[in-house]
Amino acid sequence: MPKHEKWIAKFKPAVSKRVLCFTGAALWAFASYRVLKITFRALSLTSVPAWIVVTSGLLGLYIFFSLVFKKVTKRNVTRIYSLKSEKPCIFAFIDWKTYLIIFFMIGLSILFERFKLMPAWVEGIFFIALGGSLLLSAIILLFAGFSTRPPTNKKPDF
User: Fold this and answer.
1) pTM value?
2) Nearest 5 degrees, angle CA 104-CA 107-CA 112?
């Protein structure tokens, strides 16, 4: 094994596949909290009745989660448990392309928030849909971490 591979193996923050699911759940739950926090501020700034914004946001949540987040989250759970390494790197709970999407979305959120590029009621609807989708994805990952048993090489005792 080359020297750089030994160094990488020695310092790699390796964790179990279950911990990867819990790490993903924690990240999405934190992101959901941050996004929904923006939503509550947006609701206080709009003249549109809150029930209209919330109802529209929940409809958007259903569509957004059903068409995008649910599939991506289930694909990530499948990918995690099919990783060849028994102790993958803690950052492997999502693939590298998803990291790029996350940074892009964070940048867009900052731009929209900083420069008020959309009305507060539209912002509220969008962030309810996004924050709720992130929260539901966190719940799926949490259940995947608790309920999925990683395969073992141990022979049954019978």
Assistant:
1) 0.83
2) 125
